[in-house]
Design brief:
The protein is α/β, with parallel strands linked by helices. It contains 9 helices and 8 strands. The protein is globular.
Length: 308
């Protein structure tokens, strides 16, 4: 029996947060395309929103990856010298917006070839905000605004930051939209935990005789302090992501959970994009046999119901 409209199996893809770790999504998408699988709906938090928006517009994956490599691997906005003081974030809004414009331009949600949802967090109400209309650049800027690192975005009357804080991989929206199969991409992390642990040991547990350190100049000390501040922020975010991911997955029950092994990649180590992409490919390859069988099983179920 050939495919009919009634046996079309819809696939929802939730692209998770994680900063540079989220570049693993490219590897996942590569493997899906290699197997002839295109999602019917995409949701995204943080980096997942950036990649998801451009992909939903129909940008060829190879071109999208090239743009990302050019921006994230060669861009210097994440260097310490670009941090600015006495503002609401370490990185200026204009710096990141220029890069995002290259991904989505002036396009709106209505231009997407694949239905797309970006997730933000309203700082006033503390509730997640599902963004499905308006300009894509505003949506992805809000959905990826890591608190303290990037400034909040005023969007549709709300002051928004990275939705990954409350819902790191937004699979629940796809369940509500009744996708037949839901795939959630969730990245793992330990790097900031390791940095904090090393700092705690160095600062609080070393013997008095070992406390004598090499004296740093003012600029060097400022860099060290700034790095520590960033890791404290990121570690706080990681803890929130981990706890909320469990809740989201338990309530929405994704059919396939893809977990690229990105533990050794820091959230701001965008220069390691090649490694992240490889991790994404490996993770999706591991889940592909299960996904292909699930697609076939769901298709047969639909065919049987249609013939009754």
């Amino acid at each position: 029996m050939g495919k009919t409209k009634n046996d079309k199996v819809t696939i929802g893809l939730a692209l998770g947060s994680g900063g540079a770790k989220g570049l693993a999504h490219f590897g996942v998408l590569k493997v899906l395309e290699k197997n002839g699988i295109k999602p019917d709906m995409i949701t995204g938090s943080s980096m997942g929103a950036v990649i998801g928006a451009a992909y939903a517009l129909g940008m060829p994956l190879k071109k999208l990856e090239e743009k990302a490599y050019k921006f994230f691997s060669s861009n210097h906005i994440f260097k310490v010298r670009n941090f600015h003081f006495f503002h609401e974030s370490l990185i200026r809004a204009g710096d990141i917006r220029k890069g995002f414009y290259d991904f989505v331009g002036d396009h709106t949600f209505e231009d997407c070839k694949i239905p797309f949802m970006a997730l933000g967090l309203d700082l006033e109400s503390g509730r997640e905000v599902r963004i499905t209309s308006g300009k894509l650049i505003d949506a992805i800027e809000a959905a990826s605004a890591i608190p303290g690192i990037f400034p909040p975005v005023f969007f549709d009357g709300k002051y928004l930051v990275d939705g990954g804080l409350v819902n790191p991989t937004p699979v629940d929206y796809l369940r509500e939209e009744k996708m037949d199969i839901i795939i959630g991409i969730h990245t793992t992390n330990l790097t900031s935990k390791q940095f904090i642990s090393a700092m705690v040991w160095d600062k609080f547990y070393k013997k008095p005789g070992e406390l004598k350190k090499k004296k740093h100049g003012m600029l060097e000390q400022a860099k060290l302090n700034m790095t520590l501040m960033v890791h404290i922020l990121l570690r706080t975010i990681e803890i929130a992501r981990k706890l909320n991911a469990k809740v989201a997955f338990l309530t929405a029950h994704p059919d396939i959970v893809v977990q690229p092994y990105t533990m050794d990649i820091g959230m701001l180590e965008f220069e390691r994009m090649g490694e992240a992409v490889k991790y994404g490919e490996e993770a999706m390859e591991r889940e592909m046999p299960k996904l292909l069988k699930m697609i076939e099983d769901r298709r047969k179920d639909k065919q049987e119901r249609a013939s009754e």
